[in-house]
UniProtKB/TrEMBL annotation:
Keyword Heme: yes
Any Pfam family the entry gives: p450
Annotated metabolic or biological route of this protein: Hormone biosynthesis
Keywords: Heme, Iron, Metal-binding, Monooxygenase, Oxidoreductase, Virulence
Domain of life: Eukaryota
GO terms, molecular function: heme binding; iron ion binding; monooxygenase activity; oxidoreductase activity, acting on paired donors, with incorporation or reduction of molecular oxygen
Cofactor(s) this protein requires: heme
Positions bound to heme: 456
Name the record gives this protein: Cytochrome P450 monooxygenase ABA1
Length: 513
């Protein structure tokens, strides 16, 4: 007859498992115990998950670096930094740091298919950037500026035809949505050679914008909860994900992109001047073209639209800046430097110091992308100097980017770093102190577009879109906020902003030249 085991023996396996779990958690905690952070971050992802799901991660991140310093802990293997020198060090061309998988893998458009942003293999990433650089820079896309000009003119025509207010009638316009239409039409024109047509229709044709926001919400949820491997498992992705056969939404966008690419693959590229032709000439395969096209559409439109929204909001909220910028624009027009019959040229914009300062300051005060883009410390660790202090970073640690903390750093930008002040960029370059300060500010704000081997390929395109649109908006129209008590509705999806309800009143200045 077998007797029941004594109670202590029954508890032994449980106690051993508890001891093993506690030991592993302690080792996990101890590995980064030199870095302070919010409670629980040493052994749990709860704080970071809540920060991402709050849809205000940019604010949560800044609160952490403000409280705990330029390197803080936000998870068992996660650090966060507001140090621009460390960020440039990690992204330098010859850096041994690589991309963190949990974040970049979540940005895939298709299971198992990487684009230039989600690619973790450094060699493949470098090759893809080389293949795509000419298309983004305009070296093989000679119609780049004229294509953007065409969409700017369509945006101005849309405003004139439907949304002008008068002294006797107010006609509110959702500027956020019109800018989104504009950005989508620009990226589809320079990417595929034809616009989606949102501006002409004054509508989100095929629900591209709505579906992209839904997709970003899913990416946020999967990234925050660690569900990416499950949701990107092919059987699950086929069941729950969009299909190229869908009649609207992201699936429709995928189907449209596929048809355009397949049609172009059967044609010669020597007479074409757009990004797709350039990518084809540099050897991208059919699937690579498809994946990069989807990234272009989503990332290229959302970020530029966000930048324009932010700059316009701060200009409209600062009458002194508004008047000074419009005066500079009027001086350029009256001097004949900008043609009466066409959109201002990029060459003219480069010689407008105040407009350039306004754009730089707008991007600084509200960076259009605040994604964490974590970098992985090389095997063996790395020793760096942060604010004069030597710090050892253990190998295999993820270090994320605190955008709000970097670009509102009072040591770099001054005690008024939380305020919108374009004049901070108009320092006297003949003075050595001012010259050094200006150089430090520029180095820091360059991180808005990434840096080194991770710099955004679309930076020249975005800058051209933003500066041209801002110039033409204030050349032709007078602007005001229709609902100043609530200027917009905006959500941060793990670093990408989506917004609408930015209601404005637009009055024609009667200027055509």
């Amino acid at each position: 007859m077998l007797l029941p085991a004594p109670l202590p023996l029954l508890l032994l396996p449980f106690l051993l498992l508890l001891l093993l779990y506690t030991t592993l958690k302690y080792l996990q905690y101890a590995r980064l115990r030199a870095f302070p952070g919010p409670f629980s971050t040493g052994w749990s992802e709860i704080w970071h998950t809540r920060a991402i799901l709050s849809m205000r991660s940019h604010v949560r991140y800044k609160e952490v670096t403000d409280k705990y310093g330029p390197i803080a802990r936000i998870g068992p293997n996660e650090l966060l930094t507001s140090s621009a020198p460390l960020l440039t060090h990690m992204s330098a061309v010859r850096s041994g740091y690589t991309r963190g998988a949990w974040f970049n893998r979540a940005t895939r458009m298709q299971p198992g298919q990487d684009h230039v942003f989600s690619q973790l293999d450094e060699g493949r990433h470098a090759k893809r950037r080389q293949q795509m650089a000419s298309g983004y820079s305009g070296k093989e896309n000679h119609a780049l500026e004229s294509a953007i000009d065409g969409r700017v003119e369509e945006l101005l025509d849309l405003i004139r035809s439907k949304y002008l207010s008068t002294s006797t009638k107010a006609t509110p316009m959702d500027l956020a949505r019109k800018i989104q239409y504009f950005a989508l039409d620009v990226i589809s024109t320079i990417g595929f050679g034809q616009a989606f047509g949102d501006l002409k229709a004054d509508a989100d044709l095929n629900d591209y914008i709505v579906s992209s926001e839904q997709g970003l919400a899913i990416v946020t949820l999967s990234g925050a909860l660690g569900l990416t491997p499950i949701l990107q498992w092919p059987p699950v992705a086929r069941l729950l994900g969009p299909s190229e056969k869908d009649k609207s939404g992201f699936g429709r966008m995928m189907g449209t992109a596929r048809k355009l690419i397949d049609a172009r693959l059967d044609q010669p590229t020597d007479k074409r001047s757009d990004m797709l032709a350039s990518f084809m000439r540099h050897g991208l395969s059919r699937e690579e073209l498809f994946t990069e096209a989807l990234l272009q559409i989503l990332a290229g439109s959302d970020t530029t639209a966000t930048a324009l929204r932010g700059i316009m909001l701060y200009v409209l909220a600062n009458p002194r800046v508004y008047a000074k910028l419009q005066a500079e624009i009027d001086d350029v027009v009256s001097s004949g430097a900008s043609s009466a019959s066409s959109v201002v040229s990029e060459a003219t914009l480069r010689n407008m110091p105040y407009l350039q300062a306004v754009v730089r300051e707008g991007l600084r005060i509200r960076p259009p992308v605040t994604d964490a883009v974590p970098k992985l410390v090389p095997k063996g660790g790395d020793t760096v100097v942060i604010d004069g202090e030597t710090v050892f970073l253990p190998g295999g640690t993820n270090i994320s980017y605190c955008a709000w903390g970097v670009h509102r750093n009072k040591q770099v930008f001054g005690d008024d770093a939380d305020q919108f002040l374009p004049e901070r960029w108009l320092l006297n370059e003949e003075d050595e102190h001012d010259r050094e300060r200006l150089a430090a500010m520029k180095r820091t704000t360059e991180l808005i577009f990434g840096y080194g081997k991770y710099q955004c390929l679309g930076k020249p395109v975005a800058w051209m879109e933003i500066t041209k649109t801002l110039f033409e908006f204030l050349r032709h129209f007078d602007w005001s906020l229709a609902t100043p008590e609530k200027p917009w509705r905006e959500t941060n999806y793990m670093g990408i902003f989506c917004g609408d309800d930015m209601w404005v009143l637009v009055h024609d200045r009667g200027v055509r030249g």
